[in-house]
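pinning this so it doesn't scroll away 📌
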Amino acid sequence: MLVLLTGTVLTLKAQTASPSAPDTTVMELIGKYTFPDGSVVEQVEVILDSTGLNMVSEAGTSVLQKLGVDSFALVSFQGTAVFKRDDNKKIKMVVIDAMGYHLEGKKNDTAAATKPVAILFNTNKQAIMRSAVK
């Protein structure tokens, strides 16, 4: 009886658990990517918002729909985005094939992206992000 009760409680808890934080693979993709001079777009930014993972540029915004480990469909542009890693398994670039264009952009390494960030809430329960390192 105890085993049955424990199984039932664990099943209910798993069903009512809050959604987990985005996995580390997704978090590694977030950032800005710069393309060579003369490219159709100079830069794209990968962001995570309430709609999921998105790629934003001056050409527009597209949801990134997962195809594989580091490959995504660019839904709005009928194309693909494949993220490339270096020998240390860090994201180093993105290769975009969309609407007849082939683009290869390097990920920008910014100091802000490597600093720990604390998420605080103000009196209106709005999230405020502050660097944890001064």
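📌 and the second one:
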Amino acid sequence: MPDQPSPSPNHHYHFVTGRLAESALRSILRQQSEKYHFGYSIDVMPITVAALMTPRWIRRHLEVPDAATHIVLPGYCDTGTEELAESVGIPILIGPKDCRALPEWFGGKSEPVDLDQHDIEIVAELNHAPRFSIDEIISAARQLKADGADIIDFGCDPSRRCTGIADYIAALVDQGMAVSVDTFDPWEAEQATLHGAGLVLSVNSQNRQYAKDWGAEVVAIPDAPGDDQSFHETIDFLQRKNVPHRLDPILEPIGTGFVGSLMRYSQTRSQYPDHKMLMGIGNLTELTDVDSAGVNMILMAICQELKINSVLTTQVINWSRSSVRECDLARRLTFHSIKHGIPPKRLSNQLVLLRDAKLLPYPKETFETLANSLKDNNYRIFAQDGEIHLLSSGTHLHDDDPFRLFDRLMQLKVSSNVDAGHAFYLGYEMAKAGIALQLGKQYEQDQALNWGYLTVAEDHHRIKRTSRHRKHNSES
């Protein structure tokens, strides 16, 4: 983790960097030193990529001015600094990996946001569960639980009775899972609760008379969305029979009364301020042509404000295939937001999937300066201002089309240093750069695009090349 500086006028920070970041670093430090009134100097190491530096290698090339009070190393040098610190005799700070993050680094950060707390329970439904084997159900339930589900909902098939429901429920309970059953069939509900299901979804006038014999909590719903009379009658019946219950007025999809159904949740909370409530949110996420993360976030915020302490979700259709994980992240954000009375902004980027929260462009003059200073033919790729930039020694090509860019490269240096493997690498990286430009994401060569909680880290293919490549870079 980067260290946290406390800049003051009597501090002089000596920054260690590679040639790639020199121009941007000078521009950034000029602004930050004017803001915080500290002194600084820059030590440009004889290497292009700062990520290749090690503290031991830095020690051989470091030239520290007498005025320096601190040495700042790039974030890649976060281990093995003890020997270097002992030799220079002044404190060493580990900065961010990217110099463009220095303004935030200098400005200071608050204590890490605690997003461990939440009070909304996630009930994750396994749809048409009887169509799968017990082993398949257990495997799917384990994944849902790992993603954040608190209760595994065994969704029965309305078209036929599940005669083996007892075995399914017992198998899930044996795995230590809290289980609910989604059925209107009194027999299925009875068998499920006898074998460990603690919640039944759902009851109305059709089956509520059986609920008193199940010994389980139930979800009360109206006979039809908006039928307040049947809803109140079911609630009154359950209260008289001392059946524990939570209330679900039923969320309707867009186009069939969505806003009106939201209002009924608010009205139900006002009418029954002390009752537990549940919202079945799949009616929106599954029936709307939109990626589910933002929808889940808004629905969880509504539930948090109305004190609806449980949601029923599913993840059948592809665009909502990760709804349980999204709900888990969203319930933490909304809990923190409402508890502290702040918007859920700058708390976590885990649900910022399509675009990045912030772009960090290089100063425009950086590319020409870098092209003129590079001594090797290894390619550096950047994406900003609507174009992909390709740089190496004396070369700066840029275009908004990676195919045209590659054609221009081949015309300049036909097969001189681009073999099949290198061409594949350049194509892969420029494809990522093109996606970044299209969506408004930050592109960094050899790093995965940031897809929030869906990000899969990549190896630094260019950085982790042969030892001969390392030597060439460090000596050029």
